[in-house]
């Protein structure tokens, strides 16, 4: 094959193919039903600290990143429900075991969502109040995105009188 034929083939390939899309970006819509992804990013100022959040919703798992004052990745945890007792297993994928900031957050997110959770957390280990506030904001956003199931008997606060 000559270089001209190769160039023409590559041009045809580039014109004929479409880049895969990642689904809606932002905070619109509910969970992806067609196996796509949904990306949500937001920032909150809590306790004189800027927290950055990113949530990526896949069909059967959620990836969440919480960054404190910077865009550093931090520790990475993976959590999933286990059978038969509906417990939750959590492991540290990246980062040491001496800093467990985010480990219990990942466990609670699995219990609330019923989905596998991959959580990257960059919160200082000596700030438990900041970690709790970050988890509250993350859970609040997951609830508004309909990623957290409502419990039976839980009051619906979105109704108007």
Question: What is the count of DSSP helices, taking H or I runs of 4+ residues?
Answer: 3
Number of domains: 1
The secondary structure category is alpha+beta
**Head-to-tail CA distance between termini:** 73 Å
Task: State Rg.
Answer: 20 Å
Percentage of β-strand residues? 25-35%
CATH class group: Alpha Beta
Strand tally: 6
Summed over residues and divided by their number, the pLDDT gives a mean of 78
Strand ordering within the main sheet = 1-2-3-6-4-5
CATH topology name:
Ribosomal Protein S5, domain 2
Shape annotation? globular
What low-confidence regions span 5 or more consecutive residues with pLDDT below 50? 13-29, 157-161
- The CATH architecture would be 2-Layer Sandwich
Order of helices and strands: HEEEEEHEH
Largest sheet: 6 strands, mixed
Helix content: 25-40%
Protein name: Proteasome assembly chaperone 4
GO biological process, one term: proteasome assembly
InterPro entries: PAC4
């Amino acid at each position: 094959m000559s270089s001209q034929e190769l160039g023409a083939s590559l041009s045809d390939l580039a014109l004929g193919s479409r880049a895969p899309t990642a689904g809606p970006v932002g905070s619109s819509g509910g969970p992806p039903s067609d196996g796509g992804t949904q990306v949500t990013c937001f920032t909150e100022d809590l306790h004189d600290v800027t927290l950055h959040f990113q949530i990526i919703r896949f069909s059967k798992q959620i990836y969440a990143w919480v960054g404190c004052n910077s865009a550093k990745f931090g520790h990475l945890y993976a959590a999933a429900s286990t059978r038969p007792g509906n417990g939750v297993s959590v492991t540290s994928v990246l980062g040491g075991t001496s800093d467990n900031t985010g480990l219990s957050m990942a466990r609670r997110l699995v219990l609330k969502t019923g989905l596998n959770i991959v959580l990257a957390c960059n919160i200082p280990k000596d700030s438990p109040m900041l970690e709790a506030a970050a988890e509250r904001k993350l859970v609040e956003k997951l609830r508004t995105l309909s990623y957290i199931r409502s419990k039976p008997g839980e009051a619906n606060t979105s109704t108007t009188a």
